[in-house]
Inverse folding.
């Protein structure tokens, strides 16, 4: 009452911009400044003690101990160090020169390894309004174990076999609540826990969870395999430093390995890391994708929206790409997606966005690839490797990645090969990635836009551009002069950007979800936000 009489409202005290909120914010800013100062002083001292002036983990930790109460831990996570302040639960990333790059709050979850409960204990049912939550690496591993029916999960306050756990129902929704980094202890509640057991097939590495996920002597993260309808919403977050290695022929790899539900939606997600799906001594007919290995099923509908892969992929399989390796299903939409990771496939059907599509209808829109596509097998394209079957529409996309190495049967800047069973439409695209024509016996299967077409009447091309020196032909294995293709000496500047946007506006394509083009910082047209 006295506060009200004094003209001070409760909101002025307790609101986010209130007196208490401002005091808390000021306290946190002071703590962060103090923690950064401790790191700065410690890095200088540690580097001074090193004969070569390097920053080494042991010396760094020793100096940190001298400036703190021993509640600060440093870990070498590869190219950087991670410094953890236990009392504040903050993790600082420090490069090998001692520069502080970033800091984050550590993951917080009272039920790590149980996606059916919120941090406060609220039970989740997987509905759209009450979705399952992935708050930490433990949750992501448990989610994979649960749907794969292997390993352990945490439910009802204890670790149990996944096959005995509560199962995810059909048409469930799963959301990611924060950025996760497999190499960062900040993404785990306890990165040293061992109760998940041997996940990576190397029982001699101590079985700490962070080691199971990152040790390249093992198999790494177990891909998520699901045979139900679901929505996975990354909420714009990133999963970093994923590592997977295949030791079994026919096993698909990706964040999601093999999916076969009736309706599948994956959206608003970025994945970064490394996937190795090469088997040295045998043929491997599995597919590999940064987001999904294979989505299959005669009556399926799949949607992949707003996803980006920066995964370095090494494969020897049937269908390899940044977003999805193989899509033998009814209908698929791949919208607003990108690949920036390098892809190397020893077998065939390799693409920046999709490896092979054999379906009723497929729609690839507002997508781009900047990663190098390297393939010693057949069929490789900057966007799609192999259009095997169905009505396939590729529109408003671009490729800047080089298509390299030996191989036949179609290598193209946008599409590698189109068979007689596939009707393809390619509109409003450009390619500036060079097509390396190394196999002189198959020169006619290389093209700046399409590497090889087996039926020119089933190929429609409109408003497509390519860099003049990217390839000696526009469409390989074709005698048709496609009027919709234009060669340019340089794909740069506002003029070509306006050409793309004019095509969109004159055809009323904004209402169909076509993005307008902008100029990137390098002066080239881009679809990035």
């Amino acid at each position: 009452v006295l506060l009200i009489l004094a003209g001070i409202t409760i909101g002025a005290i307790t609101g986010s911009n209130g007196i208490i909120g401002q005091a808390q914010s000021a306290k946190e800013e002071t703590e962060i400044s103090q923690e950064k100062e401790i790191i700065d002083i410690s890095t200088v001292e540690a580097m001074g003690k090193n004969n070569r002036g390097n920053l080494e983990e042991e010396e760094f930790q020793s100096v940190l101990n001298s400036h703190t109460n021993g509640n600060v831990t440093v870990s070498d996570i590869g190219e950087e160090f991670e410094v953890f302040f236990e009392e504040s639960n903050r993790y600082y990333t420090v490069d090998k020169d001692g520069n502080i790059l970033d800091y984050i709050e550590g993951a917080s979850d009272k039920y790590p390894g149980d996606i059916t409960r919120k941090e406060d204990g609220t039970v989740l049912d997987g509905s759209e309004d009450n979705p399952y939550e992935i708050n930490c690496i433990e949750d992501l591993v448990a989610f994979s174990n649960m749907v794969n029916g292997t390993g352990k999960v945490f439910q009802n306050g204890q670790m149990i076999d996944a096959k005995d756990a509560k199962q995810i129902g059909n048409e469930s929704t799963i959301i990611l609540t924060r950025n996760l980094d497999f190499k960062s202890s900040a993404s785990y509640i306890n990165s040293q826990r061992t109760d998940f057991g041997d996940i990576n097939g190397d029982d001699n590495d101590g079985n700490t969870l962070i080691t199971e996920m990152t040790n390249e002597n093992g198999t790494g993260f177990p891909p998520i395999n699901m045979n139900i309808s679901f929505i996975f919403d990354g909420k714009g977050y990133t999963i970093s430093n994923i590592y997977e290695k295949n030791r079994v022929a026919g096993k698909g790899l990706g964040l999601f390995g093999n999916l076969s539900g009736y309706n599948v939606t994956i959206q608003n997600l970025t994945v970064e890391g490394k996937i190795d799906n090469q088997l040295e001594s045998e043929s491997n007919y599995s597919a590999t994708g940064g987001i999904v290995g294979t989505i299959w099923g005669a009556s399926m509908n799949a949607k992949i929206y707003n996803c980006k892969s920066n995964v370095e992929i090494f494969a020897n399989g049937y269908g390899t790409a940044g977003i999805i390796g193989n899509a033998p299903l009814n209908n698929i939409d791949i919208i607003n997606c990108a690949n920036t990771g390098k892809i190397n496939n020893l077998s065939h059907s390799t693409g920046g966005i999709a490896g092979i599509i054999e379906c009723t209808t497929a729609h690839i829109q507002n997508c781009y690839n900047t990663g190098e596509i390297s393939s010693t097998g057949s069929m490789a394209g900057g966007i799609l490797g192999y259009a095997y079957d169905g009505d396939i529409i590729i529109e408003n996309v671009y490729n800047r990645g080089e298509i390299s190495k030996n191989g036949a049967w179609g290598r193209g800047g946008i599409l590698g090969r189109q068979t007689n069973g596939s009707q393809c439409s390619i509109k409003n695209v450009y390619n500036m990635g060079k097509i390396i024509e190394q196999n002189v016996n198959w020169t006619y299967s290389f093209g700046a836009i399409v590497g090889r077409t087996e039926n020119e009447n089933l190929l429609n091309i409109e408003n497509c551009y390519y860099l003049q020196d990217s390839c000696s032909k526009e469409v390989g294995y074709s005698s048709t002069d496609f009027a919709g293709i234009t060669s340019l000496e340089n794909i740069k500047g506002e003029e070509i950007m306006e050409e793309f946007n004019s095509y969109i506006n004159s055809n009323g394509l904004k209402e169909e979800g076509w993005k307008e083009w902008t100029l990137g910082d390098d002066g080239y047209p881009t679809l990035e936000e």
